[in-house]
Automatic annotation (TrEMBL):
Residues 47-400 form the FAD-binding domain. This is FAD binding domain-containing protein. InterPro entries: DHP_3-monooxygenase, FAD-bd, FAD/NAD-bd_sf. Residues 1-46 are annotated as: Disordered. Residues 13-29 have a biased composition (Low complexity).
Length: 414
């Protein structure tokens, strides 16, 4: 896939790589009210640029194409050949229905259809009370879902190896800037570029990630466990300082072990600070990190789960991060707009199981707003305002829920 198709060589060396605060971040309330202007009518066939090709971005691009928005480009920083990884993700019915609407059969990305969550309380490493409840959704993995989405993207829509570095307003239109010096104009820029979002840094720079004081250690085994069908959650007691989850995935099991770690320990375990290394891939896992996780498994988990952890060779980790809740999702850029979506808007703690769900639900809502604009010439600024009003509260609630859950498990510093 070409990394430059659909972009234009930047011919203006003066062109800024960050938005001009005077032209591109004017609050919407400063814009003239009234009937749709010529420009909003003229963009009823808007050019849409989506930044980020993981989960929220491809869902967004596919929904737009399905809704008849023809001029869509999806830019992903990582080259197509680069390995990306990710583990188990619970999708709620709202998200499953969006995927259904896109024509993605559920059995393509849900391989174990159990709805059961077994909540197991441990007492001195032995399983005590077991509470069973049902999850209003199904489990998938990042890999299954990402593959299902990306294989449906037309090749002329997806541009891999295209890292966005800036956004400016030129000729009254948003202009994306890329690391290789290319640029691409758009009427609407949708940043779905994840936890370390460039879009958030440009549009909402006050909101910075800060480390919550604990780590989601992850592992994937390559041997199947015939007795494992459900999602199992182990907790020692309230405030015990750990949580362990395990569930089946194709050809193995996926576990997440939440454990506290100081910033210095994080750096020792993964070779960089939590704010610099937001995903520790298998090659970043040091012997110190392995030893810490193995020892904690020995300390807290029943023998069977401890043995599973010890035998896991493929390990990853993600520091748990917090951020101020968002206060807006939409920014005017000249006569166009830029929005934040998914983890780019609100990177929530993993226990909330809301990150991917938020992104998919927001993409669905944004498609409705753009459809009203495209088909019925609804004023685009007003349509985007309505989208923000409907989806911001859920994003704020999920950001606020994370620290509550962390406190309940006795994890981290809050
Ligand atoms: C342990 C764990 C468990 C989880 N469990 C759940 C769960 O049960 N349910 C749930 O809903 N969520 C869960 N999540 C969260 C979920 O994984 C994320 O919310 C989801 O992956 C976010 O998707 P996204 O597409 O918004 O962002 P990301 O997956 O972060 O993708 C961002 C993409 O943008 C690209 N990119 C970044 N910068 C640029 C740039 N400058 N230019 C171009 N491209 C760029 C990146 O390469 C990447 O492909 C969990 C997370 C963890 C760590």
């Amino acid at each position: 896939m070409s990394s430059t198709a659909g972009t234009e060589r930047d011919s203006d060396p003066q062109s800024s790589t960050t938005p001009d605060p005077d032209t591109s971040t004017t609050p919407q309330s400063n814009r003239p009210a009234g009937p749709p202007t010529k420009s909003t009518r003229a963009t009823a066939r808007p050019r849409v640029a989506v930044v980020g090709g993981s989960l929220s971005g491809p869902t967004m691009a596919l929904l737009l194409l399905q809704a008849g928005v023809e001029d869509v480009a999806l830019y992903e920083a990582v080259p197509a050949s680069a390995p990306q990884g990710g583990g188990l993700i619970g999708l709620e019915h709202s998200s499953l229905d969006v995927l259904d609407h896109l024509g993605v059969p559920q059995d393509e990305f849900v391989r174990y259809d159990s709805e059961a969550v077994m909540h197991i309380t441990l007492c001195q490493r032995r399983p005590g009370q077991v509470a069973r409840h049902l999850y209003a959704g199904r489990n998938t993995t990042w890999t299954l879902l990402h593959t299902a989405l990306s294989r449906r993207l037309p090749t002329d829509v997806l541009h891999t190896g295209a890292r966005v570095t800036g956004l400016s307003a030129e000729h009254d239109r948003p202009l994306l800037h890329f690391a290789d010096g290319n640029t691409a104009p758009a009427d609407l820029v949708i940043f779905a570029d994840g936890r370390s979002s460039t879009g958030r840094r440009l549009l909402d720079p006050q909101r910075r990630l800060h480390y919550a004081g604990y780590v989601a250690h992850r592992g994937q085994t390559t041997t199947t466990r015939p007795t494992l069908h459900d999602f199992l959650r182990f907790e020692a007691s309230e405030h015990s300082g750990m949580q362990f989850n395990v569930a089946p995935i194709p050809d193995g099991a996926d576990w997440t072990f939440y454990l506290s770690a100081t910033p210095a320990q994080y750096e020792d375990f993964f070779g960089a600070s939590p704010t610099r290394r937001l995903f520790a891939l298998p090659q970043h896992i040091t012997a110190a990190a392995r030893a810490e996780v193995d020892a904690s498994a020995e300390q807290y988990l029943p023998e069977e789960q401890a043995a599973l952890v010890h035998a896991t060779t493929t390990r990853m980790a993600a520091p748990v991060m917090d951020i101020e809740p968002p206060t807006r999702m939409v920014w005017p850029i000249g006569a166009g707009h830029a929005v934040l979506l998914g983890d780019a808007l609100a990177p929530v703690r993993p226990h909330t199981a809301r990150g991917a769900n938020n992104g998919i639900e927001q993409a669905w809502g944004l498609t409705a707003a753009l459809t009203q604009h495209r088909k019925y010439h609804a004023d685009l600024t007003t349509a985007l305002d309505g989208w923000q009003r409907r989806h911001l509260p859920a994003a704020v609630a999920a950001v606020q829920l994370g620290p509550e859950l962390g406190r309940r498990f006795g994890l981290g510093t809050v």
